[in-house]
Design goal:
Blueprint: H1 2-6, H2 10-27, H3 31-51, H4 57-65
Helix pairs in contact: 2-3
Protein name: Photosystem I assembly protein Ycf3
Length: 69
């Protein structure tokens, strides 16, 4: 997903931040905080996908796999 994020510009940087902080929270054992960060990333992905539905296939798969779509 990181490669797709880079194509999304400044919002992509937010996505990286949200995703990275979510992963960091998981490593620290704080799943509640991790979910909050991932929820923020989801909102950005949904916006990106709505703007360009044919792009971000990996993100669309991640949303489906994690039950966030």
């Amino acid at each position: 997903m990181r490669q797709e994020t880079l194509k999304y510009g400044s919002k992509g940087r937010n996505l990286l931040t949200y995703s990275d902080r979510g992963e960091q929270a998981i490593r620290q054992g704080d799943s509640e905080i991790a979910e909050a960060w991932f929820d923020q990333a989801v909102e950005y992905w949904k916006q990106a996908i709505a703007l360009t539905p044919g792009n971000y296939i990996e993100a669309q798969n991640w949303l489906k796999i994690t039950g966030r779509s």
